[in-house]
Design a protein that fits this description.
The complex is a heterodimer of chains A (463) and B (515). By secondary structure, chain A is mainly alpha-helical. In chain A, 34% of the residues lie in helices and 3% in strands. Chain A has two domains: 202 residues, Cytochrome c-like domain (Cytochrome Bc1 Complex, Chain D, domain 2, Orthogonal Bundle); 201 residues, Cytochrome c-like domain (Cytochrome Bc1 Complex, Chain D, domain 2). A two-stranded antiparallel ribbon of chain A has the order 1-2. Chain A has a two-stranded antiparallel sheet with strand order 3-4. Chain A has a two-stranded antiparallel ribbon with strand order 5-6. The longest helix of chain A is centred in the N-terminal third of the chain and has 20 residues. Chain A is globular. In chain B, 1% of the residues lie in helices and 61% in strands. Chain B is built from one helix and 20 strands. Chain B has an 18-stranded antiparallel β-sheet that branches. A two-stranded antiparallel ribbon of chain B has the order 14-15. In chain B, strand 17 and strand 18 form a beta hairpin. Chain B is globular and about 85 Å long. The chains are: A mainly alpha (463), B mainly beta (515).
């Protein structure tokens, strides 16, 4: 009982309480940042929030007849002048919509032990075959240099073809699909080429500027095949056969690609949908770095984690080059692509990152064979460019590496200011970022080999 | 120093139980962030409120019957009716409310009791067309012509609360013993500041209530120097609120290239059940006018479910259950000489709280060990050593033979100090953190006492706490954490920026004695 305390004890007790209160009031409160796992989730969600990285709703299912037609066209080599490549040749489902090559090999390919190798007199395409996992999500830019885009406004497709692009093209993806068949290196072939049956490649005889005739020639081939005539009639019942243009084929290919290759059920997508357990601890730490310290999200942002802007990251130059900068590749900065002074040289489209784990090699020219190498590059661009190891390239490409001091200097001069200083990630942090990048993989994207049809209407071999 | 002083504290994962504790000292408040509390729970009139709520060695003729129902036996008259409209406001336009209680206490022979009804209306902080919960910023280079968001209709916040109190007791005058029971029912639709706990939400619909049941006992021994009194209260408090929080999750529709807001409603439960035992004793010291008292209070609380708050700039850990053992050990001394009353109280308040998060689905720890569904993912052990000091004074001025004016003033210092030991079973890490802050309360008041009427005014102002998300001009720049009413548990782990606010309360009461 308090009342049993002596007066001196009472006084002492009271004094102790008083002292306690004031000592507590005067002590300092240190700030202790912590990384407990639940707090990590909170921090990560806060880090993600400003970047517009949000869950993606499903794409609308296309008309089945349209998608079926698109599927056959996608795999059918009849679309190529020499009847030797199809869309799937460079965007092979077995290779996760790529071709496993740094630079794509187009028509005139020689199959060498299952590998597509450059045919006699042929050249590599200047760039890596872009993966198709995000094309159905309606990015504003197609191709590494973004030359097919909707910069003029939604639904207004801006392409190098200008006014030649038919009115009936239904999407930017379809607009993109109009182009490879006109490209001599990719699908059309060179004048004088003969197709795989030894016949004259009639499409290659046309002048480059005759794009409408090129598309007509391709459609003439396609519609000459009864099965295709039926499929087009099913997909476009209200359009007479004589009014069908290649834009209808392109629309069908786009529908197929959208339906088939849109893969947005990755662990990270589930995390965005508020499943905290979807990501591993490493992936969470990597994501936190990605959206904060490493500054990856300053370019790779938005729902697609990219695909909506351009950046110059000083990727080592290799390959035949293209445009006005040949033998280099100035990307979006090529005046023939975007007009004078629109972009500095060496700007390329920021790649969308979903399923990036599956789409090696990386960058616009496949300069890096692994995600680890890519992250190392970003961690210290200056060092990575100056010490680029050409041995990581396929043998056939090593001689095309432009490692001269002038080129390297030019690359570093145009380097994005955000990358001019090393990011200084530790090896473990780099590993965590790679873990995050791997969390962007939709499990259903890992094995797409079953997508390929057993046969296509032309009877040509399915790649 | 600017008026709107920003103070940075350390905070992170917020878990709060918002049971009404301010009703009495017998419910011990738990608070881990220096959050400003609205004076929502100050419902009943109090004679000692202007004297820093002194209660250990000084009787409070108005409030005591509502704290310990057995003290209703002390009525000198047949009873009294009262009305005590109370207004509080939080500076920076950060909240406020009005409460109108009406009630009375009565005595018929050996039986006594009381009743009260109260209606309460709280100001919404979301008013005036402010963009209260702006959509998540999306600096995405999409075409500006495209819609960025679609509208999600906010849930209209409820604003009214209702309270009902009843007590009944019996005194055994020959033994100096009184026994009584009381029940306070609170129908709650709005707890001040809860909206602020859900950053980015479109609306919070609160519903639920609290039930506070008490069994009180008093024993008095008359002595030549005054009465020695002892009291005991056994209480059970059940607090059960649901926060239906509407979120507007942004999603991207690739078909239209538009960012849409997809409504999502979280049903956050905030439950705390408390058993408490309070013991008090006071006696005069000699015949000097001094009186000394002591209290010992124990609260054992379980938190079956605590809300998952989303607090801006605060790392929020999803919490599940927890439990608390809280104690108050207090000493008070007062002196009444002639028209003057002085009092001082000191309370030491150790609290131990254990909260944890549970795995929702099988999880792996950093080393690969399996954490099964329902197992603990994170544990927090709080150890509080709080201290409360109160001092007050009153002076009566006799205006006439049956009229008196009483002037009162007081100050309270509440020091909150705790250490947090946090164990993260997923990351397999541990950490320790110390926190403290001090809250100051200044009180003042006056009362007129007439032969058939008493009119009182009590004012109080609390500083040393803040509310996050409040700007100088009263706007809200982000939704943020607040705890407001009573208990506020949060295991800090990140920076929390609070804007200092002052909570000011004015209570007017009129009591009419029954002769």
């Amino acid at each position: 009982m308090i009342t049993l305390l002596t007066p001196s004890k009472r006084a002492a007790y009271f004094a102790a309480l008083t002292t306690l209160a004031f000592v507590a009031a005067c002590s300092d409160a240190p700030f202790v940042p912590v990384d407990s796992t639940p707090a990590l989730d909170a921090r990560l969600r806060q880090a993600i929030a400003p970047w517009g990285v949000v869950p993606i709703l499903p794409v609308n299912a296309p008309d089945p007849a349209l998608a079926s037609l698109g599927k056959m066209l996608f795999f059918d080599k009849v679309l190529s002048g020499n009847r030797d490549v199809s869309c799937a040749s460079c965007h092979s489902p077995a290779a996760h919509t790529g071709d496993d090559a740094s630079l794509a090999v187009g028509t005139g390919v020689i199959m060498n032990g299952g590998l597509r190798t450059l045919g006699t007199g042929r050249q590599f395409t200047p760039r890596n075959a872009p993966p198709l996992f995000s094309v159905g999500l309606k990015p504003f830019y197609m191709f590494w240099d973004g030359r097919v885009n909707e910069e003029l406004g939604p639904g207004r497709f801006n392409t190098p073809l200008g006014s030649a692009l038919p009115v009936g093209v239904s999407s930017l993806l379809a607009a993109q699909a109009m182009i490879p068949v006109t490209n001599r290196v990719e699908m059309r072939g060179n004048a004088g080429d003969r197709d795989v049956f030894g016949n004259v490649n009639e499409i290659a005889q046309l002048a480059d500027a005759q794009v409408a005739q090129i598309w007509s020639a391709v459609m003439h081939r396609v519609l000459a095949i009864p099965a295709y005539a039926q499929m087009f009639a099913a997909a476009y019942p209200s359009i007479p056969a004589d009014r069908l243009g290649f834009e209808h084929a392109a629309n069908a290919i786009a529908a197929f690609e959208t339906q088939t290759f849109t893969k947005t059920n990755s662990a990270f997508d589930r995390y965005l949908a508020r499943d905290d357990n979807a990501l591993s601890l490493d992936a969470k730490h990597g994501a936190l770095l990605f959206f904060t310290t490493a500054r990856c999200s300053s370019c790779h942002n938005g729902p697609l984690l990219g695909a909506q802007n351009f950046a110059s990251v000083a990727v080592p130059q290799l390959g035949p080059g293209t445009g006005g900068a040949t033998p280099l590749d100035a990307g979006r900065g090529d005046e023939t692509v975007s007009g004078p002074a629109r972009f500095p040289k060496f700007f390329f489209r920021v790649a969308p990152l979903r399923n990036v784990e599956l789409t090696a090699p990386y960058m616009h020219n496949g300069a890096y064979p692994s995600l680890e190498a890519v992250v190392r590059h970003y961690n210290n661009v200056d060092s990575a460019v100056k010490s680029y190891d050409v041995n990581q390239l396929p043998v056939a490409l090593r001689s095309s590496y432009h490692g001269d001091a002038t080129t390297i200097s030019a690359l570093l001069t145009s380097l994005d200011p955000r990358l001019q200083q090393p990011i200084r990630l530790t090896v473990d942090e780099q590993r965590q970022i790679v873990a995050f990048l791997k969390s962007l993989t939709d499990p259903s994207a890992r094995d797409l080999a079953g997508i390929a049809p057993a046969a296509v209407p032309s009877g040509l071999a399915v790649p | 120093m600017p008026v709107d002083r920003l103070r940075t504290s350390v905070a992170a994962l917020a878990l709060a139980t918002l049971a009404p504790a301010a009703l009495s000292a017998q419910l011990i408040q738990i608070k881990t962030l220096p959050i400003a509390e609205g004076d929502q729970w100050r419902i009943f009139p109090s004679a000692n409120a202007p004297m820093a709520d002194l209660s250990i060695s000084l009787a409070d003729s108005l409030l005591d019957p509502f704290v310990n129902p057995a003290k209703g036996s002390r009525l000198s008259d047949r009873g009294l009716f009262f009305g005590s409209p109370t207004f509080y406001s939080v500076s920076q336009n950060a909240g406020g409310g009005r409460t109108l209680p009406l009630g009375g206490v009565f005595r018929f022979g050996s039986m006594f009791g009381g009743f009260a009804l109260a209606l309460q209306e709280l100001d919404t902080i979301r008013g005036n067309g402010q963009v209260f919960f702006p959509p998540v910023a999306t600096p995405v280079a999409v075409d500006p012509a495209l819609p960025a968001t679609t509208t999600v209709t906010p849930t209209a916040p409820s604003r009214e609360n209702r309270f009902a109190f009843a007590s009944l007791g019996r005194s055994f005058s020959t033994r100096g013993l009184s026994v009584a029971g009381s029940v306070l029912w609170s129908g709650l639709r709005n707890i001040d500041g809860v909206d602020l706990l859900y950053t980015g939400s479109q609306g919070v619909n609160q519903h639920g209530g609290a039930l506070d049941a008490r069994l009180g006992l008093t024993k008095e021994w008359a002595t030549t120097r005054g009465a020695r009194t002892a009291e005991a209260i056994l209480l059970h408090n059940r607090f059960d609120m649901t926060h239906d929080v509407t979120w507007a999750d942004q999603v991207f529709d690739p078909n239209t290239r538009a960012f849409l807001n997809r409504p999502r409603i979280d049903h956050n439960l905030d439950k705390t059940n408390t058993w408490g035992l309070h013991l008090g004793y006071s006696q005069p010291l000699a015949d000097s006018g001094w009186r000394i008292g002591a209290i010992a209070t124990t609260n054992l609380a379980s938190h079956p479910k605590l809300p998952d708050y989303q607090i801006a700039q605060v790392m929020v850990i999803p919490w599940d259950p927890g439990h608390t053992a809280a104690y108050d050990l207090g000493l008070g001394i007062s002196k009444s000489r002639g028209p003057t009353t002085l009092g001082v109280e000191a309370i030491f308040e150790p609290i131990a709280t254990h909260t944890w998060g549970e795995a929702h689905g099988a999880t792996q720890s950093a080393s690969g060990a399996a954490i099964p569904d329902g197992a603990k993912t994170t544990e927090n052990q709080f150890r509080f050593s709080n201290a409360i000091l109160r001092a007050g004074a009153g002076h009566d001025l006799l205006l006439s033979s049956d009229q008196a004016l009483r002037l009162q003033a007081g100050v309270e210092l509440r020091s909150i100090t705790y250490g947090l030991d946090q164990t993260d079973h997923i990351a397999e890490t541990q950490r320790h953190q110390n926190e403290h802050w001090v809250e100051w309360t200044r009180t003042w008041g006056l009362s007129f006492r007439f032969s058939d009427l008493e009119m009182r005014y009590a004012g109080r102002s609390v500083t040393g706490t803040g509310r996050p998300g409040i700007t100088q001009n009263g706007g809200v720049f982000f939704a943020a954490g607040d705890a407001l009413t009573s208990n506020f548990l949060a295991a800090p782990s990140g920076p929390l920026t609070l804007t200092d606010v002052r909570v000011t309360t004015h209570q007017f009461s009129i009591s009419v004695p029954l002769r």
